[in-house]
Amino acid sequence: MRLPEGPARHLTQVLRLTPGETLRLFNGDGCDRAAQVIEVTRSGATVAVGAVGEAQPEPPLHIHLALGISRGERMDYAIQKAVELGVAAVQPLFTERSMVQLKGERLERRLGHWQGIVIGACEQSGRRRLPDLAPALPLDEWLGLAAPNTLLLDPQAPQALAQWSPPGPEVTLLVGPEGGLSPRERDLAARHGVTGVRLGPRILRAETAPLAAIAVLQALWGDLRA
What we know:
By secondary structure, the chain is of the alpha/beta class. The protein folds into two domains: 5-52, CATH 2.40.240.20; 62-221, Alpha/beta knot (3-Layer(aba) Sandwich). The protein contains six helices and ten strands, in the order H-E-E-E-E-H-E-H-E-E-H-E-E-H-E-H. The longest helix has 22 residues, at 104-125.
């Protein structure tokens, strides 16, 4: 099997594997595959694919992250670390305070860039199930589709995240961009049944808040409990 350009570059330039060495491959379906390097050239790498490993267990809590689009590296960092922490899906959202204007070809390129970050985070963290990266939507449109058990991180909320009742098998976490959601958007989210929760006494950055919340959810009800 001839590896695609990205994995081949990782194999040759990062891992620096040579013919005869072994590795494990994954395609996002929950199982990995044993493999052996056959050939390494300047133009790529060829491997022999062997036995399929056991399926990675489903997590006890599926966390969906709906994230207001932030600028540049902040969005990249939030997506990367959220995947490492175990989110099942990422939904980018256009909000009133999003400072990034994306549409058409530029939006498609950015989605492709984020998809690459998702794959790289899975490789780094050993995840064998690829989280879903949904097409970017305006917040108002997404709220009409939002599932039950949706939480909005809001430093003004009266209830702390750790005080929330156990959510069941799925929870959606809504986080705004720099500056958070506008008052109109918070009111609209409440009218759609979204519950506001706070993390604690400090106001966190847009790229920090979702990661702290995911870690709390995983520790209380997810795969960090053990």
